[in-house]
Amino acid sequence: MELESRILSLLDVEAIARDTLEFLRVKSETGSEGMGSYFLADLMRREGLEVTLDEFIPGRPNVYARFPTGEAQSLKASAQCRPLALLLNGHTDTIPIGNSTPPAREGDWVVGRGAEDMKGGLVAMVHGASALRKAGVELRGDLWLTGVVGHETPVGKKEGPLRLIELLNAGELRADAAVIVEGPSAVWSASLGSAVFTVTIRSPRGPIHTLHVPYRENPAACLGRLLSRFQEWEDRFEREPAHPLCGRARINVGTVHGGDYMNRLPTPLTVTGQRRWTPGQTCAEVLAEFQSLCRELSEETGLELEVELEGTREPFETPADHPVVRALTSANRTLTGSAPERIGMALVGDANLYANLAGLPTVYYGPAYKTAHSDDERVLVERLHHCAAMYAFTALHYCGH
Predict the structure, then answer these.
(1) Is the pTM here over 0.70, yes or no?
(2) Cis bond leading into 244, ω under 30°?
(3) How far apart are CA 163 and CA 141, in angstroms?
(4) What is the rounded CA–CA span in Å between residue 202 and residue 297?
(5) Whole-number Å distance between alpha carbons of 363 and 331
(6) Other Cβ atoms closer than 10 A to 171
(7) pLDDT at position 73, please?
């Protein structure tokens, strides 16, 4: 506990608040988030870390910094057995500023676009590593601090996370687990899978006068059958056992488009929505279910139905007994005297990518997740201080020292 007390004493809550506020004043909307990446890199350098700016997209770099370990280790991973390496990760972009509250300090709060999602977590990450350095800690395993671009959709195409995954898979960065520094102050260790679906219904007759077409052969009638089947799916999802952390599977519809005149056949007609599924099921299985339904309705109606999935994310779940979960639990016990809550969410994020595309066990732990994407985004200074300590203590427990 002596080392942990020393680290805690080196975390300046007001400095964390000031740096967060300064970060919020840097406009870094998705697609033009370069200045946010450069700010993060400068903050890392100021706190004594060696920084790599990965300009894989000109003007929109990912940011990587490796906390110096007690053993000389090269950037490129080797095949030899080494202590566990931990990757801390977040995104430097925000959704558009719009009419959000301007950056400011309001008592115990820092407010402004990106406060909670997720510049506050990134600042806490850097201050946690800085406290380790100032305390003279030499970690046995690598600790990577990373910030990526292109997170927020639809403008972002996950360019930054996918680039980081490319480097992880190539061994340019080596990590055994990741903690994403956003979300509630709980170990968020599971998420549903997700995809945006579009079902298109076409009549081989083309857009002719409806006088010549029985209603049962109208794409609009087929639409009714399709939506009824979606309701049957949703009823089934409600009956099936829910995942203990992130809940049940679900389907919903967001848009229906079709038709251009009141007595012309509405073809093509499209239905777009979102399908979410639980850990243990795959995107391929979800697609197969949609395709089977389209075939059935096509046989029943004589119409052409096809489905496309986009923005697909497989679900993820990191087990409760995984070392990174245990490290976070130990850190929270050291800091608060109790174990953190372990949760899951229906939301999908970069953990779904890191876990499935890089095989990297991933969890989230952040200051809060209540005001993200709102026009009054804000974060408590105390929660940023808490997270800085959590990231430092987690690195101690996971990487060793």
Answers:
(1) yes
(2) no
(3) 23
(4) 12
(5) 14
(6) 12
(7) 45
Spans of the chain below 70 pLDDT: 70-81
Nearest to 220 by CA among 253, 250, 263, 273: 263
The pLDDT > 70 percentage for the chain reads 97
- CA geometry: angle 299, 303, 309, nearest 5 deg: 90
Query: 347: which 2 tokens?
Result: 């939301």
**99-115 pLDDT tens trace:** 999 999 999 999 999 99
User: Count of alpha carbons within 13 Å of 321, Cβ hemisphere only?
Assistant: 0
Task: Collect all residues with Cβ–Cβ distance below 8 Å to 385 and sequence separation of at least 6.
Answer: 11, 13, 16, 124
Q: How far apart are CA 360 and CA 286, in angstroms?
A: 23
- The residues, any chain, with a CB within 8 Å of residue 196's CB and separated by 6 or more, are 272, 273, 274, 309, 310, 311
Which residue from 18, 36, 19, 38 is spatially nearest to 27, judged by alpha carbons?
36
Encode pLDDT of 126-139 as tens digits: 999 999 999 999 99
The single residue listed with the structure tokens 């399908």 is: 275
Cα 394 from chain centre: 20
List beta partners, residue 364. 180, 188
Q: Is 219 exposed, middle or buried (0-12, 13-18, 19+ CB in 10 A)?
A: buried
